[in-house]
Structures are given as structure tokens and as C-alpha cells.
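Input/output pair, single chain:
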Amino acid sequence: MTQQPLSDQRVDSLARGVWGVVATPFTDAAEIDEESLVRLVQFYESVGAAGLTVLGVFGEAAALTASERMQVLDVVAQNSKLPIVAGVTSLATAPAIAEIENAQAAVGDRLRAVMVQANSGSAVTVIDHLARIHDATGAAVVLQDYPKSSGVTISTDNLIAVVEASPFISAVKAEAPPTAAAIARITARVDVSVFGGLGGQGLLDELAAGSAGAMTGFSYPEALVSCVTAWLAGDAEAARAELTPYLPLINFEQQPGIALALRKELFHRRGLFATGTVRAPAATFPPELDAIAAEHLAQLDGEEVR
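Output:
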């Protein structure tokens, strides 16, 4: 299904709040575990997520076949009422368009936007890339700046220029540190939702800088939701109180190289995933961290979580 092209008027910004980045659960045989996926998306909905981001970097989209991506999108759409943002793995225009058309076929009008990474440091190149994508698919775009994944570095000024030239951009996902500084500059120039990511490590600073919330994953997404909800209600002190007990675990979970394995293992220990399996080349959970992970969870179980 190809959406109708949008007008030159800027599309509505993505809703404020927490857009949960959906990890793709696997069985011990590394096949997609639909039952665990259903549990996860229904849990996100139950704790008040604004929407779901599917097939992002932490969804291991690059390790899925095209048919498996369609399968994941279909399961999510069939088992949650939340709006969906579908991630696009390719940095090249033609295959990105093909991915989006597949997502549109799988999700239909549940697809709120597609998340496309900046594929060049040149504003002109990114503008052309996104315009060709939009002309072909009609999809609204979440522009993701995540150099750790894409290998592309773009300046904040060039990112702003891309948004200003692209009225079909409904949000920016700013994941190039220092994120709070970038978010402050973007929100001062462009009237579009800007979200932080990176597991919520900079969430409080990003909210203070003007972010619309978070588009990320964390093994306790309810903590992110409580924090952002309090902040958007104008209570910064409550927002800080909601997040503070979870900061040690956020820091633990975001360790470079093993962050995905840690999050999936923690989902497993919370009963959301049947296993913590990742697909190669992702690193597996280090057994040396078993007791440390257990202690983090025990500390939270002992907290009076709001």
C-alpha cells in the first residue's frame, strides 16, 4: 500500500510522550518468538506508551529477513492499538523505499511514520534522499541522527536545515551526544517534536532542553513513562523522583557493545521474554554480569516504585 503524498504544509508532529523501541524476541533457536513480542507490546500499552517504534537498531532489524520484518510488524499491529513508527535500515534511497512499502503493506493506516537515518553529513544530500522517499511513499518521516549506528555525522545546523526543507518530517530523534545541546538548538529553530534516545541516559536533561519525550527502550519502560508524564504535566521535581531509582540500571543497561544483550536478558528476567537470545553478530549476555544484573533487579524490587 502506497500512501497519498502529503501537501507542502508541515505534517502534525509526533505525539509527545514515550515511544517504546521494540526489541525483537527470539527463541533459543533464534527464531522470532511471537508470544514474547505480544507480551512486550501489550506491556508498553499497559504502562502508557504514546506509541511503538518497531524495527529500529535495538529491534535487530538488520539481522531480520524482509519476510521476518513483515512478520514482526504484523504481530505488533494485530496485538496493540498504539500508533507505529517503522524503522528503515538502509541508508540508500531505493532499498529504503522498498522497506517502507513493505511496512505500509504490513501495517496499513496504523503506520504513523517511518524512521530514516541521516545518510550524509550534507544537508542537500539528506534533503534529496528524504524527498525521494516521501515522493515515492507519501510517508511521514522521523529523522534519526544516530552516528553510532549509521556511521554518518551531520552537524546540528545541517540537521535543522533538513527539517526546515522537509515539511513531511514529523519528528527528529536526536542521538548524537551531547543530545541535550542539540535538542535545545533544534527546538529553538523548528516547530517539530524532538525525542532523545540512548536508553534514557540523558532523559532529564533532554526534557529540560525541550524534548517531546523519549523514543527509546529500557527494561523498565514504565519508569520512562512516569518521568515524562510528570515532566509534561509541569512537575520537574516529580519527574526527577520517578527516574532517579532507575538511573543505576539505565547506566548498566547502556554499556557499549552489550547493551542489546543486557536489555533482552533483563526483559527475560522480568518475564516479558522467554529467552534473552540475540542474533549474531550481536554480542551475547556476559555470564560474569549475572550477579550484578540480579542485584540491580533486587534493588528495584525493594524500592517503593511510584
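The first strand starts at residue 17 and ends at 21. The mean pLDDT is 94.
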